[in-house]
Amino acid sequence: MPETKQAAMLQVRGLEAWYGESHVLHGVNFDVHEGEVVTLLGRNGAGKSTTLKAIMGMLKRSKGSVKFRGRELLGTSSRHIARAGIAFCPEDRGIYSSLTVEENLLLPPVVAEGGMTVAEIHQLFPNLAERRRSQGTRLSGGEQQMLAIGRILRTGARLLLLDEPTEGLAPVIVQQIGATIRKLKERGYTVVLVEQNFHFASTVADRHYVMDHGAIVDMIPNAEIGAHTEKLNSYLGV
Amino acid sequence: MMQKNIPASSDAAAPLGMSRTHLVLMLVLAALVVVSPFTLYPLFVVKVLCFALFALSLNLMLGNLGLLSFGHAAYFGMSSYAAAHAAKVFGFTPELAILFGVLVALALGAVIGALAVRRKGIYFAMVTLAFAQMIYFFSLQAPFTGGEDGIQQVPRGNLFGLFSLRDDMALYALVAVVFLLGVLALYRITYSPFGQILRSIRDNEARAISLGYRVNGYKWLAFVLGAGFAGLAGSMKAIAFQLASLTDVYWGMSGEVVLMALIGGMGTFFGPIVGAALVVWMQNELASFGAWVTIVQGLVFMFCILAFRKGILGAVGQLLGRKV
Amino acid sequence: MLIFGIPIQLFSTQIMLGLINGAFYAILSLGLAIIFGLLNIVNFAHGAFYMLGAFGALLMLDHLGINYWAALAIVPLVVGLLGCVIERFVLRWIYDLDHLYGMILTFGMGLVIVGIFRNMYGATGLAYSMPPGLQGGFNLGFMYLPASRAFVIVASVIVCLATWVAIEKTRVGSWLRAATEKPQLTEAFGINVPLLITLTYGFGVALAAFAGVLAAPIFSVNPMMGSDLIIVVFAVVVIGGMGSISGAILTGFMLGLVEGLTKVFWPQASSTVIFVIMAIVLLVRPAGLFGKQA
Known about the structure:
The complex is a heterotrimer.
Chain A: E1 10-19, E2 22-32, E3 37-41, H1 48-55, E4 61-68, E5 71-72, H2 78-84, E6 86-89, H3 101-106, H4 118-124, H5 126-130, H6 141-153, E7 159-163, H7 171-186, E8 190-195, H8 198-204, E9 207-212, E10 215-221, H9 229-236
Parallel strand pairs in A: 3-8, 3-9, 6-7, 7-8
Antiparallel strand pairs in A: 1-2, 1-4, 4-5, 9-10
Chain B: H1 20-39, H2 42-65, H3 73-90, H4 94-116, H5 121-141, E1 151-152, E2 158-159, E3 163-164, H6 168-190, H7 193-203, H8 205-210, H9 215-241, E4 243-244, H10 251-264, H11 271-286, H12 292-307, H13 311-320
Antiparallel strand pairs in B: 1-4, 2-3
Helix pairs in contact in B: 1-6, 2-6, 2-9, 2-10, 2-11, 3-4, 3-5, 3-9, 4-9, 6-9, 7-9, 10-11, 10-12, 10-13
Chain C: E1 2-3, E2 6-7, H1 8-39, H2 46-64, H3 68-89, H4 99-121, E3 137-139, E4 144-146, H5 147-169, H6 171-181, H7 183-188, H8 193-215, H9 225-240, H10 245-265, H11 273-284
């Protein structure tokens, strides 16, 4: 773990969560420091997406502690969490079919200063400018992913939670997304990334947390990922 | 989640195929039916029994399929008109008049049901309400229904041509027997394989379809049965009170029967009987207060939904820890 | 002059009456559709709010001297506020439950509201005097068009169009559409979805109240005026399918027109023709004319 004198930007301690009767997270602990890109790796059902949703306040029942910049956010409404400066990009991308591309882009309200302008986002993702009047869901999978990422960049949120952004996308697009995340890192954004594809994860992240059965079981700094490939493969059930 | 009804399994092999709780309730019901005309005004109990059967018929679909027929008065009312007309104009004896009314209700239920089951949930409710309104407008205009006056002075006649029903106690005997038989029939239907299939459709329709059940067919059949029993209630009411009127087909009547099922407990078999007794009694007490009945009914609806969804029998069951 | 054997005056008068009914069907089904889209509740009390609108106009005129034109603006606002309060304190409790409960709850609510007014005013109608600006009419040659009727049609077209534009083309409308489609995600972006829900219910019933004010000088004001009307509106909504706003508006006007035409050629069927059409639509296209496949 890198030594820092400052507290982590995001501190998750003892996070538990339930879907109905089902106990899905069993005490998740991890830290994310400002400016880092951190991934949550694990196989299907490990609880990665659930962790993001729990941080975002989208689960009905959860326990534990989620501190963002020192403020306890667990138990507050998801809109309160969004306004604290955290933005969420869901696994299915969450593009609205009843909104145009432009409306999708402009939907999330600005919660802090320093967000990108629409012009800057158009520069980053030119397709979104071209297709702005189209219905949101008429974009290709890759374009929808760009839109999903683009719209949260406008808000000024500095902590981005991305749930499997490369899922189901062609390798060329995956590379684009990787480049985008690296660009965001340069601009000082902090990213928590859920991924199953650890090769992709290793191209963008600083550290990797491994999840299994609803808890963090390991942490591997990116530099050491080569040395631990076999271990990772077994965690991911590959 | 719709209030879970009548447990989907646990149809244990008890005597008569009933759980002990149900056997007790059935016996209590029979006892009450036998005793009450001697302590209460017989025609009042007749009214309760008719509406109890009406409410039970509604709950066949509501409790087992989660489908709310918000226009159930159509079958109650039309059969009431049919039976009244048969007794007064065709000169049928009461049992034939009632049978005629039931057949009319079954036919109506078959036609409307075929259309209504094509939608689910709220749409289903709205469709049934709309068709019932159509029946109301038809009844308003058709000559044989007597419009605003209704069909009055319906003769009670002689049962099987032999037993005069003019005496209230004789009439009561008929109604009581028909009621108890009706309850038994509905009970058997509810706790039969057919009923189980209905509940499985309610719990997971997609799965039922994938298992090969013609879901719409089952829904339709339940609808027709519900209409038939409503018709039985309506026909009996027409003969007993010698009147068939627009009130019987009005949406207010449809709302009232929903109230009965709700108050008594939609999630139980016997609940609607309790609900019917309560609502009929309440109306009796509030009859002189005019529009207050509407307000009280509305408040009771709201209270039940917000704070008392299990209904009376459901709450009692919960208190006693038994499946009612 | 005759059209299909009917004198043109009768024909065009019925068309006008049909458009008027259609105007009310449109505004009311629009309100229902908006509420249903976001709240997933079929607002059985919608007819009661329509009635409140008419009574509101009447009471304001009789007790506060507020005229029709002011009432058109004020009454919907007041009723809308009432709707917001009701949503916040009554409806909010049942969102997690099956849709049926919402229906029964609003049905009960409607009974209470109508019951209160029936208690106070009886079941017979009260008159709302025709405002001076709407008296008289236009002689169009083939028929006489009363100004009041023309106003109702024009006003409701404008309100429906304005609502459609507000929902489909504005920023706030995009919030509403987003919250309707994916309420949880929309809230996770920081949008106050619960407030949106409250305001939407208020707006929906305000539309009903607006229709009520429009109705006051034309039909008599009586506590039962919404009860029978709302069931026809349900049929309209089943025919149109509750998925689309524009569908609700178009279906409303269309069915009013059909009803009016039926009155010309086959008067006895006019009260049931809409239900018959509903039956046909259910056979042929169960999701409704503009509905998405259920």
